[in-house]
Amino acid sequence: MVTAGEPPRIVLLGATGFVGSVVLRELATRPGRVRAVGRRPAPVPTGAVAEIEPRAVDLTEPGAVASVVSDADVVIHTVAYIAGSSTWRIEDGDAAAERVNVGLVRDLATALGDRGGPPAGVVFAGAISQAGTPDRDVLDGTEPDRPRGEYNRQKLAAERLLLEADAAGVLRGASVRLPTVYGYGPRSTVRDKGVVSTMVRRALAGEQITMWHDGTVRRDLLHVEDAAAGLVAAADHMPALAGRHWLLGTGRSEPLGEVFRTVADLVAARTCKPPVGVVSVTPPAYAEAGDFRSVTVDSSAFRAATGWAPVVALADGLRRTVEFCAAGDAGGIT
Fold this sequence. Notes:
Rossmann fold; alpha/beta; 10 helices; single chain; two-stranded parallel sheet; 15 strands
């Protein structure tokens, strides 16, 4: 907790993850104290202005969460359970996933409540998909939550635990629901396992890009650097945000068929080979209704409260992703 003359201590949970590693780079650019918590030591960003304390911890171990947040002024929680190498989908009743996706928030609320003193601020990285499949394509956060799939049910359960703790005065918490996040930048250190980068890798390998629909399904695609900036903005504006969930997005959605054809063209320009095909295939049995619904995110409420706005245009984000993957997909990054 803050003492006289010291800046607030920010504890970043999931600092070695896809989104968390970019949040760490964002935090490192400004003065402050950051405890970067991950399963392995987080690399300190080159040229860091902030004081960075890497801490390698298995947060699922008893008492682990309390050990890293005991002196936190702000916690940014970006940890999520990823089942396998390329998907966030999990099976119903997956206890390991529940321990991470829900249990860590439960541990966090308990730890912050037990320590006493002024309540810490907590920013939780949620998901737009927690709402399920609303009847409208433009989401603004007022739609009722009817999650489909175990991952979304668990994320919603965690969010509700956080907001209940806020209402009880245990902490000051806000959930920032993210849309489809993608992409790389020149300093990326963690592999993007999302659909955009997966299709970039397929195209670079000379394989067709596949879709489970006719390509007209639209997605609001947010570059990871903009997502990270949004989470940091939430931490900076906790008094205005605490007690509810907020949506993050670009406000634009693009047909995935066009996105993937752009990817194919960018890869072709890079490899000097003809563009790979973009084709529709039969959806797998585990496909969900949300896979076939268009989504655009109205984040005007979050923008008004924080001043945040996305800065990476889709065309630029796709180009960066292709260039990064073509250069070797960072080879050894995980």
